[in-house]
Write a structure and sequence with these properties.
With 393 residues, the chain is an alpha/beta fold. The chain has two domains: 4-38 and 281-386, Alpha-Beta Complex (Aspartate Aminotransferase, domain 1); 40-278, 3-Layer(aba) Sandwich (Aspartate Aminotransferase, domain 2). It has helices at 2-9, 13-24, 40-51, 64-78, 93-105, 121-128, 147-152, 176-189, 228-231, 246-259, 265-277, 280-303, 329-340, 355-359, 370-385, and strands at 27-28, 88-92, 111-116, 132-137, 158-164, 192-196, 222-227, 239-243, 307-309, 316-320, 342-343, 361-365. The protein has a seven-stranded mixed beta sheet, sandwiched between helices. A three-stranded antiparallel beta sheet has the order 9-10-12. It has a two-stranded parallel ribbon with strand order 1-11. Helix 4 packs parallel to helix 11, helix 5 runs parallel beside helix 6 (121-128) and helix 5 packs across helix 10. It is globular. Bound molecules: 4'-deoxy-4'-aminopyridoxal-5'-phosphate (PMP) and glutamine (GLN). Glutamine binds at residues 12, 14, 31-32, 168. Glutamine (GLN) is lined by residues 12, 14, 31-32, 168.
Amino acid sequence: MARQALAALGTSIFPEMTRLAVERGAVNLSQGFPDFDGPPEIVDAAVTALKAGHNQYGRSMGLPALVEQIAAHQRRCWGIEVDPLTEVCAFAGATEGIAAAMIGLLEAGDEVVLFEPYYDGYPATVAMAGATARVVTLRAPAFRVEESALRAALSPRTRMIVVNSPHNPTGRVLSVEELDVIARVCVERDLVALTDEVYEHLVFAGARHVPLATRPGMRERTVALSSTGKTFSFTGWKVGWATGPAPLIAGVQRAHQFLTFCAATPLHAAMATALERFQQSFFTSLLAEYTARRDFLVDALRAAGFSPIVPEGTYFVLCDLCGLTDEDDVTFARRLIDEAGVAAIPPSVFYTHAKEEGRRLLRFAFCKREQTLDEAARRLRAWHASRPRERAT
Ligand code: PMP
Ligand code: GLN
């Protein structure tokens, strides 16, 4: 079952677009990884951990120092109390956490509600667990959670709802009202919520990240995922974690122990140092830098004829292609690489039902250096100027 479902999902779009960007020498605003390093002190902490002999298997659920720091982070940032030893599990990235949660918490035949557009890891890991995805569309351009659409996706087999906020690829940050719709449904139906909060610290002025676990009745039924990749700009380290109630974390751990057992020990040790050392003032300056990058790219895209949907969070901006081209997103993304020398992600791959909606969108990542964004803006401007008569009406 998983074999066929995974074959149908094909190759993830992220490495595919990065490969094209590298081959064609395009500025890569497709796959979401920073083209700069995180704080050098954290790299130093990794070197120290390597030299200090943190080079063997560690505790499967996460090194004690790391789980302590994750618990402290949850308390400090979100007022959520978790027991570090039984309510935290660390992985090889949030990606492994998603898989461990699906495999460890679902039975074959269970149904999982996903909101589309979705991160492509969700449908893939639902399939690995032998479960079935029930997909609810967040409609452009508002991408709001509608209670009637959510309820229409439920059945007696529903076991889990996956909630990603701040949301990749739309940049939406769910409001408390939307979270409460989800919370009510979870409580009424006794469902588990798997929340993907990897962009928890990338929320721009005007929006606020509220963890679903803090809403009524949700603490005991929410597994929350996060990752070092986004907040500390080390996506290649693949340090992720889950927090939640002990019985659910035990389920996740039962899968994790056989997926990887434990992740790269020295990097987990370094992340413990990072979480201890880099707190609110670091998050504040990270956000200021990302606000400037977001505003710059949004302006550059507008100047090149795109209609960007200004993100409330994450480091992605979706653009509506209306008025720019009649082509679908995949064709246009390929042409943009060839003609403009800029790579972006065609989001139709993140849809099951409303693929047509995805075909009218394109996602750009702005987790890039100023020079990279400058060069992308210059190329987009030149491309736009070279094609006035070609423009769709
Ligand atoms: N969830 C979302 C929504 C993401 O965008 C990503 C991407 N990088 C991940 C999970 C994966 O995180 P990690 O790199 O820690 O595996
Ligand atoms: N999350 C990243 C993105 O959305 C990609 C992660 C990956 O390549 N697996 O671009």
